[in-house]
Every structure is written in C-alpha cells, then in structure tokens.
C-alpha cells in the first residue's frame, strides 16, 4: 500500500495547497480518499483523474468534497472521448441528503452509500468504515492489506472510539485542527494537535501523520505540541508526503 497526501489543510487551503485528499495505491488500484479543494489539481501530477478506480468520502462537508464536482466533469468527458468505459463509484455517507443527492452524475459517477462496520475490498486491501464523533455522519477508514494497517481518522472529536477500531496501526492519519490553547469551549467534532497525539499513543500507533491543519499555524508550534504527547514516528502532513507499507 502507498499513501500520498494531496491536500491536508482545513478549513481552507494555503496558497498552492489543498483541503483534505489522499491517494491510496494498492495492488495496482488507485483510490482517492476525500476530495477537497485543490485535490484534483494535485492528483493530476500523478495521473489523469479519470484513471481513478474509486473514490471514498469520509463525510459530506465542503472541505472534503468540493473537488468531486469537477471530478464528475473529468470522468464524464473521459467517457465521451472513449478514454474510460465504466462509471466511477463514489463510496460516501447518505447524509446529509442534500449533498448526497449531488454525488451521482449522469452515467459517469455512481454513489454507493457506506455504513458503520461495512467493508469494501480493493486491490488486495480491505477498507472498513467506523463512525467518528463529528457534526454529521463521518467515517474513519481502517485499511488493511495483509499485516499492514492504515487508520485514516477523517474528521473526529476526542470522544471517538479509536481503541475499538484498531490497535497498533502502521500509520495513523489523524486530524489536529487546532493548537490545544485554541480549543473551542463547546465540542465541535475535532481534535487539537495534542489530542491527536494522545489518541495515537493510546492505540499504539507506530507512526502518526497529523493532518487537517489550519494553514496559518507554523510547523514548529504544531510539532512541539504533538511531541509532548507522542514519542513514536511523527510527521505533519504536507502535499506530496508519501509512505509505502
Ligand atoms: Zn474537515
């Protein structure tokens, strides 16, 4: 399995950056995980977007889905020009309905609803969906290929049950939306960087990639906070960051 960061900022992209989107390559298949602002442009550096085998959307908030609507045009155009034969399947929650209704597009894109505990297989790996604590239905993804495990945490508040999803993942991709000093008074379904690091320590993650980063924070402050709670292999997400397992 290979995991590549295409976009990792939120709630809006830095100049030249992107909001969440990741490329999962496994057994010759190319899977896009989330499809935020700027993600399609970055994906095109690797291969034409119509060559994707599937798309997985963790939830239907704009920072994770906006580029899907131009990806629809890319796939539709490729089918019309004979470059692609089959529709692209997008696995995504069915709520909120107003957004879910916009996922399927002509005969180019089909929507496959995802549910708690269900799995889907691609190129030698299995992806299992687990609900997180968030304002709308949102699913973490436990991605297994043989002995190797990537846990993609999507958007998630600190009461998310990571321990029941997975232990000792080789890579834990966890959001850290703000420095702990900026934690909102009321829960909003997001982790601080410190809480992300604590969660990684609790589940014994072998490597932590903190993502969903506010673009105006500086990396040294983020790293210092993360290192105060987690002493394994630690990285902050950047477009182009990649790991092969
Ligand atoms: Zn988000």
UniProtKB/TrEMBL annotation:
InterPro entries to which the protein is assigned, alphabetical: Metallo-B-lactamas, RibonucZ/Hydroxyglut_hydro
SMART domains per the UniProt record, alphabetical: Lactamase_B
GO molecular function, one term: 3'-tRNA processing endoribonuclease activity
SUPFAM superfamilies registered for this protein in UniProt: Metallo-hydrolase/oxidoreductase (SSF56281)
CDD domains in the record: RNaseZ_short-form-like_MBL-fold (cd07716)
Segments forming domain Metallo-beta-lactamase: 18-191
Alphabetical UniProt keywords: Zinc
Pfam families named among the record's database cross-references: Lactamase_B_2
The protein, known as: Ribonuclease BN (tRNA processing enzyme)
Protein's organism: Melghirimyces profundicolus
Classification of source organism: Bacteria, Bacillati, Bacillota, Bacilli, Bacillales
